[in-house]
């Protein structure tokens, strides 16, 4: 059975682009997207405002409930701000290292370049 992934993106167009790159990398490695019961969840979130922080934390908690067995990875500018608030089982990938996130999940695999194939349905 193929591994499943979910990506939650909160924030700017840069986050949307980067999340699409994560998705493309994971699909190339043979994973499939799933809203629930994912094996891997990546949260790419913004922390520009207090409201964005709260929205991101609540969204992460909801995602964890729907994907209880998943490995969780948090990146984006929020990562440094919420490290003490979130569960220890969420792996924090600093914003400066986000291009290596999928390589950190799969260190033994040849991970495709961090770029996107298409950017459909994004504004």
UniProtKB/TrEMBL annotation:
Any GO molecular function: metal ion binding
A Gene Ontology cellular-component term: cytosol
Pfam families: UPF0004
Limits of the MTTase N-terminal domain: 3-110
Name this protein carries in UniProt: MTTase N-terminal domain-containing protein
Organism of this sequence: marine sediment metagenome
Lineage, opening ranks: unclassified sequences, metagenomes, ecological metagenomes
